[in-house]
Amino acid sequence: MRADDLPAPAGPKDRGDPSPPPGLVVAAHFDERAGYGVNRPRGSDSWLFTWTTGGRGRLRQGGSETEAGTGDLVVLAPGVPHSYTVEPGAAHWRFWWAHCQARPSWTPWLRPYGTGDGLYAVTPVPPDLHHRVEAAFRRLHADARWTGGAQEAPEGSGIVVAHATAARELALCALEEAVLLTTAAARPPLRPPGLDERVRRVQAILSADPGAPHTVGSLAARVALSPSRLSHLFTEQTGQSPMRALREARLRYAARLLEGTGLSVERVAAASGFASPFHFTRVFRARYGSPPGAYRGGIRATMDLPGNSPLKRRQKGTPIPGPSRTQTVH
Predict the structure, then answer these.
(1) H helix or E strand, kind and range, residue 237
(2) How many whole angstroms separate alpha carbon 93 and alpha carbon 59?
(3) Mean pLDDT across the stretch 269-296?
């Protein structure tokens, strides 16, 4: 599928360069020369992941900006004005990019690399991992075109869009591997000196196993603190209690299960650590704006688009809005 087949986002003309509609997985590999740039004064409706394989780029998000060189993963969260371009003075910028809705579990992995305003710069990634991360992006690109046949999609680097459920999930799994590899291997920036190591350890415990029967007492025992001291320290340094942080971790995990599995709402609630499916439904709705079943239905509605894809609409004779051939969508 070409960029011309992607619908342009709705909104005023001052939105700037177009971005893919939310709910799709869109990816490509570009090698752009000096003068190339994209500007979105209102940001994008989806997350943007970039992995640089040569040259240099510069990305801005809100009031934050970073330079991207070979082996750097830079991620831009949705909804914040951003722009990116070939680094001034550089001859070119060669990079993989992917637009998608990030899985909830990725946010804790990226958080240590946040520079502000939803920009995450994961660097430096050890050079011996570069080939594996690039292989994950190549697989993402190939899986986005997968149709279920035995024959693999031909090699390529142009813009691809994953419409079918299987293609979308395979592509997201490949991107998840790239995110996990880079965030696990890179050296996070120095953390604020005021954040206690024991608080960080509790955060890591909650992210790693949110469905476990954690209590303030059990968490305090893991870091050699009294329950009252942990509760006070954690709340003072993070702005939320340990149990509130646990609930957030469980909700993120539940959202991922709803997106990627066919488990019933009751089983998702149990696997995420919620004793009551009714309580789970209530807090999930408060956090995500819809009950679990409706949330899953909304995700699947964006995943299963064969009857509503641009190509199908073209076959039915429906005009397809989209950028001109001179515009780049990514």
Answers:
(1) helix 227-238
(2) 12
(3) 90
Three-state secondary-structure class, residue 164: coil
Q: Are 325 and 12 in contact (CB under 8 A)?
A: no
Handedness of CA 176, 84, 122, 62 (dihedral sign): negative
Share of the chain above pLDDT 90, in %: 52
Q: CA-to-CA distance for 20 and 3, rounded, in angstroms? A: 9
- Distance, in Å, from the CA atom of 143 to the CA atom of 232, rounded to the nearest integer, reads 47
Residues in the chain: 330
Which helix H or strand E contains 98, and what residues bound it? strand 92-100
Classify each residue of 257-292 as buried b or exposed e, where b means 16 or more C-beta atoms within 10 Å of its C-beta.
bbbeeebebeebbbbbbbeebeebbeebeeebeeeb
Question: And the tokens for 167?
Answer: 């293609």
Provide the 8-state DSSP code for 212.
Answer: S
Closest CA to 132 of 54, 208, 185: 185
How many Cα neighbours within 13 Å face the side chain of 126? 8
Residue 222 identity: R
Distance CA 123, CA 74 (A): 8
SS3 224: coil
pLDDT tens per residue, range 33-67: 999 999 999 888 899 999 999 999 999 998 889 99
